[in-house]
Amino acid sequence: MKKWVGVGLAVLFGLVVSMALATGVTEVVTIDNQYTAKKKGPVVLSHKKHAVDYKVACVECHHMWNQKKGTQPKKCSACHKEKKRGKVLGLMRAYHKNCMGCHKELKKQGKPTGPTTKCNDCHQKKS
Length: 127
Ligand code: HEC
Ligand code: HEC
Ligand code: HEC
Ligand code: HEC
Prior knowledge:
Layout (H helix, E strand, L loop, with lengths): L1 H22 L5 E3 L11 E3 L1 H7 L4 H4 L29 H18 L19
Antiparallel strand pairs: 1-2
The structure holds heme C (HEC) (4 copies).
């Protein structure tokens, strides 16, 4: 009996922690990095919807973040530069692989998902 209370509490604690993280997340982030030749418009990511409604863990995207209290994830561009460096993907490829990689995987499983091919379902018109 006591054991199950412990497990229940642990699960509850986990939920509370992830909920606390998720409620602090901004509604949207506009991804608009500098490139030598910017070919497409910026991408507005429904940040909070992804984290809360679609239940995507922070570290699915912020994959190098240890989620320690008081720390913030680094920008992707802190590590992924315009050109690929050794094993570290270039910036566009890092986003495309992260975003479309997940959407394509969900599509394969027949689950609701985001855009997998149509550029302008993610990219805004170039201003
Ligand atoms: C699932 C969302 C998504 C889809 C679909 C998508 N992209 Fe992107 N793409 C992004 C994100 C996010 C970035 C990063 C933007 C930035 O760094 O400013 C990006 C960056 C880029 C860049 C580098 C930045 C620039 O403007 O030059 C190019 C080029 C690009 N995408 C082309 C395409 C093309 C072509 C398609 C369609 C075949 C496409 N993308 C479909 C999300 C998407
Ligand atoms: C679907 C991918 C994805 C998920 C899930 C996600 N983020 Fe983000 N987040 C991003 C992107 C992309 C940026 C923009 C930074 C960049 O492009 O370098 C960002 C930016 C941020 C920023 C800085 C800018 C701002 O507006 O706050 C913080 C802090 C942050 N995320 C925290 C979180 C936390 C906490 C979670 C989990 C509750 C989370 N993120 C879930 C992709 C994601
Ligand atoms: C602190 C540095 C750092 C940050 C910040 C970072 N990355 Fe990475 N990323 C790496 C390194 C190093 C690798 C290659 C080694 C690995 O796979 O872990 C990588 C690999 C990847 C891969 C390839 C994984 C695979 O399965 O092949 C993707 C996709 C990716 N990053 C996307 C992102 C996105 C999107 C962001 C921002 C939300 C981001 N990264 C932020 C350092 C970083
Ligand atoms: C780990 C999985 C995962 C990752 C990573 C992910 N998405 Fe999604 N995305 C989803 C799911 C799940 C849905 C929609 C499910 C639904 O409609 O119920 C979605 C929906 C969307 C939609 C359409 C609905 C909306 O909320 O705008 C867009 C656009 C989108 N994603 C863009 C992005 C971009 C841009 C990135 C990368 C920065 C990204 N996604 C990364 C899982 C993911």
